[in-house]
## 1
Amino acid sequence: MPHNSYRLSVRGQQGSVLVIAIFVITVMFLLASALVRVLNDGEESLVLEVWGTRALFAANSGAEAGLARLFPINGGVTDCAAVGTVWTPPALVGFSDCQVTLTCNAASLAGMTQYTIASNAICQSGLCDGGVVGGSSQCIRVNRQVEVQARVN
């Protein structure tokens, strides 16, 4: 009699290994998908940081170019009209896909003129202005603004 009860006990437990295996596979899948999501988020934040740095440097360069136009190297001071509204970055890798706009304001007070130059840089990659070409619709657009002031007696 003990021999038959052992046989029934083994038959009753044969399907439990399958349930445990499915549970373990499901948990491993969830852990793997969470890890992939964390890695993708880290990659995206790194890309945004790089584009943000490019935009900041482009805005700095635009402000410096505006100052160079306002205070030419041969001496003297021009006016805000010489600064212009656009600075075209050089055709270098660091400035690719960046556009820089400039604004200049002059304020006179007590025989002194204060110039304020604002440089706004927008760097982007992908199709940010609509449309899907080749099935890719990813867009990264970063904006940085730098403002400098200079006084002249």
## 2
Amino acid sequence: MGSQTGKVAIVTGASRGIGRAIAERLGALGATVVVNYAQNAEKAQEVVQAIQTLGGQSTAIQADIADVQQVRSLFEAAQDQFGDLDILVNNAATALFKPLPEITEAEFDRVFQLNTRGTFFALQEAARRIRDGGRIVNISTAGTTLGGAAGASVYLASKAAVEQFSMALAKELGSRQVTVNTILPGMTRTDGLIMPPQAIEQAVQATPLGRLGEPDDIARAVAFLISDEGGWITGQNIRVSGGL
């Protein structure tokens, strides 16, 4: 995928799962990686240590992406410590699966504050700070392309908005050679995948490649999009789902 040595990357929600795999992949490629986390400092430090063990440079910065002031503080702290930004991966998110009539106002607000509002203001900070030729990758879900799903209304709506942000920002930053894309993972094996075994098996059977995704499947796609080889791709929503 090419070296990212000398590049500065922020990965939100990077203490576990897909975010961790992305952060470690970017670190292995030589990028200086800011590992953002909301609560689990111990897990975030594990990611930092994994990157450092491979010879990379990394630090963990706590910020709840649902809080706009904390988003701004994250970018300020990263820039103060490492200089201008080259790569942003917006991964931090929360899921909610519940029938629409039962969703409370507080649940609705929490999903949109993190997944949509938080991502929007992270994109805004990146647009203001990122170097020319930089890369922005957002993480959505293949569920937005599958015609809806019972119980997933708020979650899918919050992610669909992110896809629209990406396509608009790609046009706004194109003159600076900054690419903006969104990856739409299929069902991926993480500790946040809490579903009945039967439902998981049905998803596997519906996937042409015949398995669940792994976090590193998503990380490899991110690595391609931030590389020179991915430099002609922008404004795209790309399913990384084994064909689901």
## 3
Amino acid sequence: MTDAVPLGGPRFQTEPAQLYREMRRDHGSVVPVLLDGDLPAWLVLGYRELHQVTGDPVLFSRDSELWNQWENVPDDWPLLPMIGHRQPSILYTVGERHRQRAAMVSNALESVDPFELRGQAERFADELIDSLCSSGEADLVGQYAGLLPVRVLAHLYGFPDEEGPGLVTALNDMIDGRERALAGQAHLASSMARLVAERAKEPADDVVSRMLADDSGFTEEELVQDLMVMMAAGHQPTADWIGNSLRLMLTDERFAASLFGGRNSVAEAMNEVLWEDTPTQNVAGRWAARDTHLGGRRIRAGDLLLLGLQGANSDPQVRTDASALTGGNNAHFSFGHGEHRCPFPAQEIAEVIARTGIEVVLDRLPDIDLAVPAGSLSRRPSPWLRGLTELPVRFTPVPAL
């Protein structure tokens, strides 16, 4: 693939929409790309093509063992935690076993009481606001959005509250993908294994106990792997959903009224972010089970296809009228599609945490404003997850609750 586009660099940070437009113009709906180490893959940017890939789990499999590039992948490849090799987690199981695992996860999450969930989210959000509200200025990403989801999820799963801060650090290290990534992954794995072992001996009313009670015969190791996936997938995208939504509300005059007491626009801002600025931009992936064609491209057996969620959301073939596709329209790909999409109860939990987090900020800091020019806000340099590095704000100091 001599014309392949490197999947990296500052433009994913500074102007992804323009970058996806250029890719689509130059290559069509299925783009040849190069991952770290010049490993080839395809980035699926077309809405219809993405629908086809995610809707056919036999032809476009989630089984990463099919990849035709494993012999070229070094042991210390930085994307290994994202691609997954010989990992017994829900992400890479297929067929009936995957359906059983997805049902087990969904049932455990479905039992979460939405009123109790909102109460816990409010409690942790208020604690975080208490720690910064008297200063008159804050970074709403580093001091708030980046801390809230994992605290709520840890409580739901059954961790004691004092373990929350350590899990926050471990998860953020893991997701950053730098020198502390493997240490973060190890801390998360050992914490999960300890919790699963404790609940196997002494069940409680929490998500881990409900997963252990499932009678489909999963091992404790499989449950630990699935819980790590659930925690990572539930934390950072939700944190970025909060941060990206607050950025939109603080920089777009359409939402000015809601900053001063109106609440109608919080849901609108959150939904617009899922269309226009989705936290999960690109996902790895699917692997072709045999030679096939997609979007005019010849795909070989074992080729890796990356899901271009943001590219598909902004596909001009379906986005003929931008206003018609935001508002209450949920036909975006931000939670995936098909058998391996984010389970519906997990989406609902993320939405409650994000919406509560945003509303608590607006309730507690009523005259909040950006502390820097909107154009100076920067994003993490990742082609995968799109979130702010920081969101500096100022406000009139108020006492803690």
